[in-house]
Specification:
With about 800 residues, this protein is of the alpha+beta class. The chain is built from 28 helices and 22 strands. Its main location: membrane.
Amino acid sequence: MTTSLMKRFVTPRIVRVALTVLAIVNILYLSAYLLGVSRSGTRRTKIMWYGRKMAGNAVSDTSGQVEAYENMKPSEKINEILNRITNDKEKYWLGHTELTDYELRIRVKDFLKQNWENKPTIFYDPRFTLSVYLNEIKNQYLVKNPKNEKSKIHEIVVPFAWSDWVDLTMLNEELVKPENERKTCDYMKAVHHAPARDPNYCLNNEDLTQDELDEMQLPSSFYAPGFSIKKSPTNKASNEVRMWEGKSHLLTYAANPLAVIFLSKEGVYEAKIDGKQRIVDGDLFEHYLQANGYDSAKHGEVQFVMNPVKEFKSLLAKVKPNPMLPEDDLYGMVAKIKDKNPTKSKELYLPQQAFDYQQPNIDEQLKSYDKKLKILWDASTNELKHDQDSIKNNLLSRNEKMYFEGLRYADSFSPRKEETYFRMARLNFGNEENDHDAGWHYEWRFFNGALRYMKQGWNEEELLIREKVLLDRILRNWFRFANEKGIISWIAHGPLLSWYWDGLLFPFDEDIDIQMPAQELTRFAKLYNQTLIVEDITEGFGKYFIDCSSFLHHRGKSWKENHIDARFIDIDTGSYIDITGLGISEEQAPDKYKDLIEESNSRGAPRPVYNCRNLHFYSHEELSPLRFTMMGGVPLYVPNKIEEILNDEYSKGMSVYYYEDFYFVDAVNLWIHESKLDFLFVGQEYKDSFGDTDPEKFSELVKTISEEQVVLLLERDEDILMEYYLTKDMTELHRKELTYLFDMPKGENTLIGEIGHQKTQQEISSNPEYHKFTSELKFQKPFRRSIFNYEKIDKPKHHVA
């Protein structure tokens, strides 16, 4: 019976079908195996079984012989994998960070003034804005200041509207509606977790008086979105409402910057800002047309290409950038950085006076400003004392006036009574929309969505890439600005610890902290508060706003969340660098400084121990001399006694190989999530009795990763491959640098966990090889695509739902 059933059901045709199905199943299984799946606690990543694909492609050597990929040595495989990224810009676009897609085609009549009358909607494209402004500034320089002399900088003046510089087009959703159909303040308040501290923080269109419109410099309420935001509501809200509020504030009540500075590799260009006016409402576009040979009356239908990179290069060619003048280089930092003599030290010794900023300094400044104002008043109101020279010599710039007003305002408060200056984009969290982001990492005015908030059209991987772009670029542009302008600053806290490990920013930290001496902080505020900084246009279109707290003159503990003295804010996202000053105060210092303080007191000298307003303390010798180094391809400074500072703040930070499921991999000099590494240790014992990973055991395995395993890692995970490709040269350079600064028994092959103590200052400073090493440090090309390229061009093109 069994035989007859077999004959009945297992016909030759059925056998052929079965074999075909089996073959298809095997092919699918094999494909799935070869493609692999990479799991991650923070993301899901598409994986390529890179090595298998490479094995099918022959690699030619110089003799023309062919060697199969699988027969290569591990080091050769790594080089071959990296070469593939170099040679395939389309596939590995994230590995090629040069600026692209910077041209914009427009039609002339679409931007003529007459076509924007009674039109409140907003057009935004940084290529448009930057092309127009660069052309305008160039032509003003050629007429008024062709040699870019510092004494004539104030003669270059342009109007400004935030809507030309920040993407406020979200508001068009309301601006296209009749006024009575637009959102109102009630829409915002409905999702607040508590009432706003000031109930009048928001005004509906129907409540706008002429005085309010005059303050906003808007022609009518028709140009307001329905809800005009005067100030931060200070409470929590949804991601969407926080964006509405910040963008409405910028459109309506936000004050303009005082100046704009364009960075370049050889100096800067500066222009003063006066008047609130959109490009389409003024004469800037008409000037641009004329400069490019177009007549708006005749060429309305003409389409042409705007190119900000071309405009910037034209400016560079016709007007030399303004470098730092020696007399303005207060500490000689700029001269040191630009000196390529390999025998010269780039160490920066800071005088103790730089940290000595106390009440007598405030009193002296107030007295000086009051005297100036009295002279100005008499010279302009008393004909017997009228004197043009007196007016000229005592005239306050707008920056000085703002500084003086902040100084006087701060002096009217004790630290316990001062108001909170900076406001964040506080978010409702612990819900389906947002599980953990409280909004503390975004300035509320420029908030453009939480970095890891899952918004439509984005996936987790894309958000994490965006975060890396933002943090790398903001660090790069702060130090490009500071190094050109001679502003003394150094990395601190998390970034300093991160620098120690691999010379990069941690992938799990969203904070960037910068410190500077208290005297330098006040100088920085006086010169550059409320200034807009524009990235070197050949590298990207980043724009950063400098905002300094009125209470930076206080050096004691902050009782009102004023721990931060200034911020360098990315206006495209609201992300920022925290800037804190270190100075002398009457706060109780840790016991470790007791003898130092007593010794200085016995001599009647200011104590050489300094603190920020969050009560982190440092001695003068822990900070000075500052050491020139690199982080993420950016030249910057770190404090002198790195080990001592880090051990005080992070007791195990220099030795523990793990943090929140990330592990440091010496073999590639990167922090990598556990879920991307565990496949390397199948069969190994690293779980505890509950089945969870024992981080100590897993760390020991990670320390043993071999070159063969690195190949597997790069073949399996394109994210790791890309990060390794972008950072390899700089992390290896950092490992070499550590040999000059720390005891490393195996030289550059020493594991981070095996590094000994920091060498003495004398050992480091007297080493000519160390000075030769630092003399060669310079800006590298950006590690990441520009935020414009990534958000507007690359991400939409390569998005995977």
